[in-house]
Amino acid sequence: MSKPTPKQILKRTAKHFGLAEEQLTQPRRGPWPISWPRLLAMSIAYEQLHTCAEVGKAFNRHYTSTLYAHQRVADLCKQDAKLAKERARLRKVINGNN
Q1: Distance CA 28, CA 50 (A)
Q2: Which of 30, 25, 29, 19 is nearest to 45 (CA)?
């Protein structure tokens, strides 16, 4: 099976969190219930070997935001087991192992 594209990751993340795709790609950062799913999705897309430019374009962000998202998610998951479990669940959803 091929890896999901950043757009597919965006779509699956939005569905998983009950959000519209447009909410995850809006120019503003948005509140935590929107920014956390976006950070997670960008980080997972980056982990799946998509370039920063591809991920940034899919999420309407500058490519450097991808690196920030990846590092921020890693830091938050080290501090909070609940967030780490949420990341693991989303990875399974994105990869079709839900």
Answers
A1: 23
A2: 25
- Three-class secondary structure of residue 31 per DSSP: coil
Greater confidence, 30 or 22? 22
Q: How far apart are CA 54 and CA 87, in angstroms?
A: 21
Within a 10 A sphere around the Cβ of 48, how many other Cβ atoms? 16
Over residues 27-69, the pLDDT tens digits come to 888 899 999 999 999 999 999 888 999 999 999 999 999 999 9
**Is the pTM above the cut of 0.85?**
yes
**3-state SS, residue 96:** coil
3-class state of residue 54 by DSSP:
helix
